[in-house]
Design a protein that fits this description.
The complex is a heterodimer of chains A (293) and B (304).
Chain A (H helix, E strand, L loop, with lengths): L18 H29 L3 H5 L13 H9 L7 H32 L5 H12 L7 H11 L6 H8 L2 H11 L4 H9 L4 H12 L1 H17 L2 H6 L8 H9 L6 H30 L7
Helix pairs in contact in A: 1-14, 3-14, 4-7, 4-8, 4-11, 5-8, 8-11, 9-10, 11-14, 13-14
Chain B lengths: L1 H10 L1 H28 L2 E2 L7 E2 L7 H9 L1 H33 L3 H16 L6 H5 L7 H8 L16 H11 L4 H11 L3 H9 L5 H12 L1 H15 L4 H6 L12 H9 L6 H31 L1
Antiparallel strand pairs in B: 1-2
Helix pairs in contact in B: 2-15, 4-5, 4-8, 4-9, 4-12, 9-12, 10-11, 12-15, 14-15
The chains are: A mainly alpha (293), B mainly alpha (304).
Chain lengths: 293, 304
């Protein structure tokens, strides 16, 4: 594609962009940016505050004498729990990675025929997917509880992983993205003797890298941040995850605020890192996210 | 006849095998629960005993009880609507405006700005920090700030005064709401054909707002529709956030939502699962109904 230069007037600005307007935009974005990052910055500061500063009155926003004590204090903060802190971290990483891999495989596999094959039932399936996008699964937590109890999945990771693997947003985005693959490419693969499974793996998957990166981000983020499902379905302490450890430590009040903030920091880092890695892919994928009427 | 059907399935068996893992789990874990909720909403069920299904003439007992006998349900219903009608539209417009403003920045700066605005919904759990910002005593960050600048003379009970609790939840929800829709809008804006802006400038589009209205929005209709669906679903499902920020129950039920009400009945000590399923059914119908309504409004306005 060739690039067109924007039409600019004498001062080198686009004709539709006034100086006053630009000033307003920067001002408005700046104010909002402060509102958005302020809690994050506060969390980071709290994580490095020594006890004296945590208890100081009136409270300060920024840390003055940063310390790493709160990181060491984590193990004390969960000392009355039956499991060490590292277990919560491990559990969180374990279910987030496993659930993400499962979601990406299931969703990409199902998206391919939905995007590229014509078979009876396809439209019904896609309509159900769209309908499911319209409400949050939290609404179904009560009937799902009955069901999970009925299957005997309570207190097992199945109750967290299986619902997370079939989140419809991922299938929807993947299907939309796969529709852009040219049919002649697929046809060529078939003429060369590849069956549909091979076509999926060798032709389709490599050309939807932006989409599976996006699904990775969304699935990881959803499972990593979830506390609702773990609270409802998991009872054994040694199976609980990081967000629940945060609630647990937070009950210690102001003296434990530093340790709480450290957990907050740990919870913040992985999704942000994954987003930094995948951002351009995510935006590429979302270009085809549009919902046709 | 039977053979014809079998032939058809056989012909497409690879397609069915490929969708099977996802679709089977999806039907079991998302579609069937909808029917479970509707089914048990006509019963009284406490897990310990077999569910008692209502006789035909009092089939709707749970629903009648909700609307006629349960004052807290009506408060939760009102709060959920107030909440959704404030956070839904504001977050939608905020997603669009911020994405649009960011789109004028250079690529590097735009990437950082995207990260900055998307960060709260990326790391959603960090909302716990708002408890300390809105802390009701003089130790709270916001109270300290306002008192330093002389706006207030004594601490405001943000999380305990029924006048403020819902507002606190709304602010934090807005903070969390630049999510998937925001990313979709950023992508949609980048996908607008630049030649259209050129043509518009020649045709007399004078300022950025006219450009937005006449060129940009019509070229990203599908993203706008997708964003609406996502934001509405989010606006009606708030529960945990309110429970953790304000408490369960909140003072005078001032921040009580339908999701919280449903969980209150489903969990210990009540275990009234039939009743909780009736609440789930109401909430489900509202969400889907509003979603269809907004979609048809958007469709009509984009044609008109």
């Amino acid at each position: 594609m060739f690039k067109l230069k924007n039409r600019k007037n004498k001062t080198g600005r686009r004709a539709t962009r006034s100086r006053a307007g630009d000033f307003f935009v920067v001002f408005f974005l700046g104010l909002l940016a402060i509102f958005m990052v302020m809690p994050m910055i506060y969390t980071i500061n709290l994580a490095f505050k020594p006890l004296g500063e945590l208890l100081r009155f009136p409270p300060t926003f920024f840390v003055q004498n940063p310390t790493l004590r709160n990181f060491a204090d984590l193990s004390n903060a969960v000392a009355s729990s039956v499991v060490p802190f590292s277990r919560y971290l491990f559990n969180s990483l374990f279910i987030s990675i496993l659930g993400t891999v499962g979601h990406v495989i299931f969703a990409s596999l199902a998206a391919y025929p939905l995007a590229k094959h014509k078979f009876p039932g396809r439209n019904v399936m896609f309509t159900m997917i769209i309908l499911a996008l319209m409400f949050s699964p939290i609404i179904l937590s009560v009937p799902r509880y009955l069901q999970i109890a009925g299957f005997g999945w309570l207190d097992s990771y199945k109750s967290i992983l299986l619902p997370a693997m079939v989140t419809t947003l991922g299938l929807y985005l993947m299907k939309q993205f796969m529709e852009q693959i040219s049919d002649s490419l697929l046809e060529a693969a078939r003429i060369d003797g590849a069956n549909e499974w091979k076509t999926w793996w060798y032709i389709v998957m490599p050309s939807v890298k932006p989409a599976y990166m996006t699904l990775t981000l969304f699935a990881f983020q959803a499972i990593w941040n979830d506390s609702n499902a773990v609270m409802l379905y998991i009872t054994t302490e040694s199976k609980k995850t990081l967000p629940l450890a945060l609630n647990y430590v937070m009950q210690g009040g102001l003296p434990r605020l530093g340790a709480t903030a450290v957990i907050g920091l740990l919870l913040m880092i992985p999704p942000i890192v994954i987003f930094i890695i995948t951002q351009s892919n995510v935006i590429e994928t979302m270009k085809s996210s549009g919902l046709k009427e | 006849m039977k053979k014809a059907v079998w032939n058809k399935i056989n012909k497409h068996h690879t397609s069915y095998l490929m969708v099977a893992p996802f679709m089977i789990l999806f039907i079991v874990l998302t579609v069937i629960p909808v029917f479970i909720a509707i089914f048990y909403s006509f019963s009284s069920y406490n897990v310990m005993q077999q569910p008692q299904f209502f006789a035909f003439r009092n089939l709707f007992d749970n629903y009648l009880r909700l609307f006629l006998d349960d004052e807290v349900f009506l408060i939760a219903l009102r709060n959920t609507f107030v909440f959704a009608f404030i956070t839904g539209p504001i977050s939608y417009v905020a997603c669009l405006l911020i994405a649009w403003f960011i789109n004028d920045l250079g690529p590097k700066l735009r990437a950082w700005a995207t990260l900055l605005f998307y960060a709260p919904s990326l790391s959603a759990n960090v909302y716990f920090i708002w408890q300390y910002i809105f802390s009701s005593d003089a130790n709270g960050l916001l109270n300290t700030f306002l008192m330093n600048f002389g706006f207030i003379s004594e601490p405001v009970l943000w999380r305990h005064d029924p006048r403020y609790t819902l507002m606190v939840v709304i602010i934090v929800q807005l903070w969390l709401s630049l999510g998937t829709a925001f990313l979709a809008f950023i992508a949609g804006l980048q996908g607008v054909d630049r030649q259209l802006y050129e043509a518009g400038a020649i045709d007399g589009v004078k300022n950025r707002w006219q450009e937005l209205y006449f060129i940009t929005l019509p070229s990203m209709k599908e993203q706008l529709m997708f964003g609406a669906v996502i934001q509405i679903a989010a606006a009606f499902s708030v529960g945990l956030l309110s429970a953790e920020l304000i408490g369960r129950p909140s003072p005078l039920y001032s921040a009580h939502t339908l999701v919280m009400h449903m969980e209150d009945y489903a969990l210990a000590p009540r275990f009234e699962l039939g009743y909780a399923c009736a609440i789930a059914t109401v909430l489900f119908s509202i969400t889907l109904g509003i979603n269809q309504l907004v979609r048809s409004l958007l469709r009509r306005s984009s044609r008109g």
